[in-house]
Design goal:
The complex is a heterodimer of chains A (about 120) and B (about 250). Chain A is mostly helical and about 120 residues long. Chain A has helices at about 10-25, 30-45, 50-65, 75-80, 90-115; strands spanning about 65-70, 85-90. The mean pLDDT of chain A is about 90. Chain B has helices spanning about 5-15, 25-40, 50-55, 60-70, 70-95, 100-105, 110-135, 145-175, 175-180, 185-205, 210-215, 220-245. In chain B, helix 5 (about 70-95) packs parallel to helix 8, helix 7 runs antiparallel to helix 8 and helix 10 runs antiparallel to helix 12 (about 220-245). The longest helix of chain B is centred in the middle third of the chain and has 29 residues, at about 145-175. The mean pLDDT of chain B is about 85.
């Protein structure tokens, strides 16, 4: 089944929301492992998102224009004696997608309350 | 399982499913997983025991991601092979019932029709494969991009392969004991399996990078080796198929 253009699956939304949280904490850019941890904490999951699932979703979000990525400077990685990180950041379209999802969720909450009080 | 072993398994799997991808894409995915593994191992608060579950949980996505990066023609090839396997399994289940097989064998026209279709389609299948192999070897159609030749030929090869498989299986089931004991049939079966493996390796490997050598009059060595193996194996299949008919060892 094909999804509507622009619609996000729960994991994609979770990535965008976690990226927003990280930004509010002062982390503009994130790598795969960091976002996996952020999602786990945000959703209170027991396990980190699987490698294949996470990187495929990150790739889709980049194709959709909600994330952008670049490889960090090799000198920085060499200085810290670790592999290079691919750094992602949320685009304005990604922020808009999170805001839109929040508006939708709030609307659904109001509708539920309305039904309950009717 | 120790974290080091889990890391090795993850690295091995990443190498497997990125095999044959364009160099930049392959290197990017491997580097990204390598970075993630490093972060997992060096995160003091990180759950190191999660490496293997994270690998296992994403296997399907890895395979889907790899499939998305196959050339369109290769996707058709993989689909054909998967359909062929399912079809054969279903047929085996149905035809292995003696009553159904006896009913088919009692028909005067069943065997000659199935055999004629099998021979006709195998000629089409192998003939088209020879054209594709000749282009891949750089012998003919050298001015036509390799992907264009494949795009025109594979839509015919795929159904021909399915019909050949189905009719071949029907013929085999008419007398499985005799066929199994025939050395030429064994040679044919081994050559068929090797040819199918060669085809899969070609499509998962060098053909995934066809955009890099599409217009080359002489394709890369890996492609030429694969095409030469293909020609040799299909020749063995064809010759062995003819010889199966003669009961020299009975």
């Amino acid at each position: 089944m094909r999804r509507k253009p622009g619609a996000l699956v729960p994991l994609e939304l979770a990535i965008c929301v976690a990226a927003c949280d990280l930004r509010q904490q002062g982390t503009e850019e994130f790598h795969g492992y960091l976002i996996a941890k952020a999602i786990k904490e945000h959703a209170d999951n027991r396990l980190l998102t699987a490698y294949g699932t996470l990187y495929r979703a990150l790739g889709r979000l980049e194709t959709m224009g909600l994330l952008v990525s670049h490889w960090e400077d090799a000198m920085i990685a060499a200085g810290e004696n670790r592999p290079r990180r691919r750094l992602y950041s949320l685009t304005p379209a990604g922020e808009e997608a999170v805001a839109e999802a929040a508006r939708l969720a709030a609307g659904q909450q109001r509708a539920k309350k309305g039904w309950a009080s009717a | 399982m120790s974290a080091e072993l889990a890391v090795s398994v993850t690295r091995w799997w990443t190498r497997v499913y990125t095999l044959g991808l364009p160099a930049d894409l392959r290197a990017a995915r491997r580097a990204e997983i390598e970075s993630d593994l490093w972060e997992s191992l060096h995160d003091p608060a990180g759950p190191r025991v999660q490496i293997l579950p994270r690998l296992a949980g994403g296997l399907v996505d890895d395979v889907c991601w790899r499939a998305n990066h196959l050339a369109d023609e290769s996707r058709l090839m993989w689909l054909t092979i998967a359909t062929g396997c399912l079809l054969l399994a279903a047929m085996w289940e149905w035809l292995a019932r003696p009553a159904i097989m006896a009913m088919l064998l009692e028909s005067v026209w069943f065997y000659p029709i199935v055999e004629s279709v099998h021979v006709l389609v195998i000629v089409i299948f192998i003939g088209l494969n020879v054209m594709l192999d000749a282009r891949t070897l750089g012998i003919t159609l050298r001015r036509v991009p390799a992907s264009e030749v494949a795009a025109h030929i594979l839509p015919w090869v795929a159904p021909a392969a399915l019909v050949t498989l189905v009719t071949g299986m029907l013929l085999f089931l008419t007398d499985p004991t005799r066929f199994s004991a025939n050395p030429f049939f064994l040679v044919k079966t081994i050559a068929l399996v090797l040819a199918a493996m060669n085809l899969l390796i070609f499509h998962a490997g060098v053909y995934s990078r066809v955009r890099e050598w599409d217009n080359a009059r002489t394709p890369p060595r890996a492609a030429r080796i694969s095409a030469a193996c293909s020609l040799a194996l299909w020749t063995v299949v064809l010759v062995a198929s003819r010889l199966v008919a003669y009961n020299w060892f009975g």
